[in-house]
Amino acid sequence: MFASSIIAGLLLGYLLDAWLDTAPIFMLILGALGFVAGMRNAKKALLATGRDEPQDKDSGRP
């Protein structure tokens, strides 16, 4: 998931740069946005794996 968002941003930026005949500005911007999105997804995945199952109010104590 992390690498795919970076690759997608770079590829889309490359295609925009080729279409608009610009310097690699869109590739850099969209690559950076892909990196940020990948880091956000990685953080969400790591936080989701660290969560325990919710405990009941009655945890078996008398």
Number of strands: 0
Largest sheet: none
Low-confidence stretches: none
What portion of residues is helical?
over 70%
Termini gap: 46 Å
Shape annotation: rod-shaped
Give the topology string: H per helix, E per strand: HH
User: Strand fraction band?
Assistant: under 5%
Provide the residue-averaged pLDDT. 87
| Class of secondary structure makeup | mainly alpha
Query: How many helices in DSSP terms?
Result: 2
Number of domains: 1
Alpha-carbon Rg, integer? 20 Å
What does this entry look like structurally?
By secondary structure, the chain is mainly α. It has one domain (2-47). Helices cover 71% and strands 0% of the residues. It has 2 helices and no strands. Helix 1 (2-20) packs antiparallel against helix 2 (25-49). The chain is rod-shaped and about 65 Å long. The mean pLDDT is 87.
Which helices and strands occur, and which strands form pairs?
Elements: H1 2-20, H2 25-49
Helix pairs in contact: 1-2
Summarize the structure.
With 62 residues, the chain is mostly helical. Helix content is 71%, strand content 0%.
Name the descriptors:
transmembrane helix; 62 residues; mainly alpha; transmembrane
